[in-house]
Each structure stands twice: as C-alpha cells, then as structure tokens.
Design brief:
Elements (H helix, E strand, L loop, with lengths): L14 H9 L20 E7 L10 H16 L6 E7 L10 E5 L6 H13 L1 H6 L11 H9 L8 E6 L10 E2 L4 E2 L13 E5 L8 H18 L3 E5 L3
Length: 237
Amino acid sequence: MKRFGGIVAGVVVSGALALSFLSGSADAALSSEPSSVEQMGPTHLVIGLDLSKSNPLVTSDVYAAQVANRLADEIRELPVRSKVTVRSFGVYDTGSNPLRIDQVISARARPGDVADGIQALVSNLPRLVSEGRLEAQMKTNIVPFLETMAGGIDCSSPTKIVLLTDGAEDSELGRLTRSGGSLPPAQAGSFSGCGELLMLGLGRGFNSPSTTARFRTAWTEWSDEAGFDRFVGLYDW
C-alpha cells in the first residue's frame, strides 16, 4: 500500500490529493468553503475501475481522459452528505486491487474537488500501469466484484454504480467474448432497490457493433435479475 501514498480510505480526494498520488505524496490541501451544490437527498456513488488488460482504460491515454471527464460529471452533481466509493477490480484477489477511496461530500470535500481528484487519477491510469504502480490484470471478475460490493451497499437509499469496463466478463463464473459466451445468473434481488448500473466503455476495444449489442443485452438481463431499476451501457458518449 505504501506505493499508493495519495490513496487512503477515508481521506479527502481533492485535485491536490490526486496530484499527490501521482507524485507519491499523501499531503493534500483541504478547502473549507461551502459547496455550491444544492442540498438534495444524499446518494451513494460506487465506482469500479476495471484494470484488466482487455480494457483500453489501462492502455489508452486518450480514452482514459475521455472516460475520466465523463465520470467527473457524475461526481459534480452529488449533493452534500453523498458518499463516493472507488474500488478497482480484475483478478479475484484483493491483494492485487489495493486502490480504495471512500469519501463523503461535505463543505471540506466539495463535489468539484472530489471530481477533480478522481478525474486526475482515472486519466492517469495508463501511466500508473506503465510505471508499475498499478497492475494490469489477466482476468475480468465483474460479477464477483458486484456480488462482493452488494454486501456493503444499502439500496434502500439512493445508490448508483458506475463501472469503467468493457463488460467482457472473464471469471470462473462465466465469460463474455467476441464470439459468444454468457454471464452467470445474478443473485436474484441482490441489488433490489438500487437505481442504476452504468457501464462506461461497454464493448470498447472490440470494435464490433454486434459484440457491443450482445454485451448490452446480457448485462441488461443480468441487472434486471439482480434488482437494479435500470441498466445503461455506453460504448461512447
């Protein structure tokens, strides 16, 4: 964990903190100015970063910047007392996925600052992987990741899950590939009451409209069975 000096559970993820992560320092400047976001019901935004080698997120600077900008828009809309949770996934091994952020939006952790920090982190993922500070992984455990997270999510409160993934499940439970495959059955109702499952980059890297459509159909059916109100899978935006 020491090599991830700027990413520690429970710290304020400001733009300064993200830059400190990239430079290896954990120091961050905190702002005491009030948030400009109008107070609404707090939301739990869960963000999953797919670090598998099939995902252009770990190899393409251009794509990482694009998806980071889209993700930041989601965070900037959050009201005070919302919670942002960030985890990485790939192989089914927590030791290979030490990246963990848990941040509550507040006057000291404004949504714009949190958005800037996470945007800087995500846009620099290809660099962090190339430098060996994060590891690109050989498996894509999307369903196991979601099932693990389900145990700590309260869907009775507004909840949205955003996965930065190509959607190509490759785990012991099931596989989705260019030529076929299927997802494992969802644990029925495990996300009952949760609002939206959003995948950014669905089918990205396969460059095949039919593959993207098949992935979208599979994940729509899976999310319905799991209990999400809706599924959105975007190849581009």
